[in-house]
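Worked example 3 (structure in, sequence out).
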């Protein structure tokens, strides 16, 4: 995974973590209620592999968000020079 990709997936992970903590959503509840294998969620949160759009979509839905809301938070989380 190159540096830009790693930055992106780390930012995704940070947004998920912050929203989950703010909404007091437990890790296991998020996985169970949204049919997300815990190993998949771990990979997303640890930015180990490139997460599929489908799995990220399930997490976003599980957080009670839409993509516009998630995207705004992600944009704030990404470095200013991302993809420049």
């Amino acid at each position: 995974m190159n540096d830009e990709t790693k930055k992106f997936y780390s930012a995704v992970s940070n947004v998920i973590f912050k929203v989950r903590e703010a909404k007091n959503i437990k890790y296991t509840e998020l996985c169970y209620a949204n049919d997300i294998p815990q190993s998949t969620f771990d990979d997303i949160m640890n930015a180990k592999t490139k997460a599929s759009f489908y799995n990220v979509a399930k997490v976003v839905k599980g957080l009670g968000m839409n993509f516009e809301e998630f995207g705004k938070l992600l944009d704030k989380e990404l470095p200013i020079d991302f993809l420049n």
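Notes: The domain at 3-77 is CATH 1.10.260.40 (434 Repressor (Amino-terminal Domain)). The helical segments are 3-22, 27-33, 38-45, 53-62, 67-77.
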